[in-house]
Design a protein that fits this description.
By secondary structure, the chain is of the alpha+beta class. Helices cover 19% and strands 37% of the residues. The structure holds flavin mononucleotide (FMN).
């Protein structure tokens, strides 16, 4: 299922999604979530391509502005299967769900794609943006981001005990920070 997206000529315009009931939004005007709580309520992060993709629940992240771009930052621990997808692709999606939200976030946040296709197990349908980025048609909102920067946290730069204590007993390894420019956004 490849989505046909039409680029609008106006600067800053978002691509129009023609299937699955999504409508393009311009996040600078139309995004009304509280940025301090949006990630705290948990979202899905997906990456990969049409041959191989995966998603996981994320509770850490941020929205804002960087390098004159509208940006989303996510943090993925070393051992996550999704990290392989993030490192192998230029784009990722962040998704919010309305229907079956708790069930999806619980499953995606406790099972690994290494052990099986989580989307298939949940009955989610994978679709792809014009850039080939995976997302689920059951999502309520999809932000597609192009990774501008990715780097793992370097413990020598931890400035207090909050990160030191976090990683003192954290088998999944340090998180890599991915900062992505929001290139498309859709909402139902
Ligand atoms: C509510 C919640 C929030 C989470 N937030 C993150 C996060 O921000 N970063 C991260 O690396 N893992 C996070 N996780 C853990 C991953 O979602 C979990 O380890 C998942 O099974 C990884 O799947 P994967 O191996 O298929 O990538 C979170 C889990 C839950 C339940």
């Amino acid at each position: 299922m490849i989505l046909v997206a039409l680029m609008v000529a106006a600067p800053g315009a978002v691509a129009a999604q023609t299937e699955h009931g999504f409508k393009p939004i311009a996040v600078e005007q139309d995004f009304n979530e509280n940025g301090f709580n949006w990630f705290r309520h948990a979202l899905l992060l997906a990456a990969g391509n049409e041959r191989q993709s995966n998603a996981m629940t994320i509770g850490w992240g941020g929205i804002g502005t960087l390098w004159r771009k509208t940006a989303v930052t996510v943090y993925v621990a070393e051992k996550r299967y999704t990290k392989q997808m993030m490192d192998g692709a230029q784009y990722f999606t962040v998704m919010a769900f309305a229907d079956r939200r708790d069930e999806i976030l619980e499953y995606m946040g406790t099972k690994s794609g290494r052990d099986g296709d989580k989307a298939r197990a949940l009955g989610l349908h994978t679709a792809y943006t014009e850039h080939g980025t995976p997302y689920y048609v059951e999502a309520d909102m999809v932000l597609e981001c192009r990774t501008m920067y990715a780097a793992p946290f370097d413990p020598q730069y931890f400035k207090d005990d909050v990160p030191r204590q976090m990683y003192a007993n954290f088998p999944a390894g340090v998180h890599t920070m991915y900062i992505g420019e929001v290139v498309n956004a859709w909402r139902k």
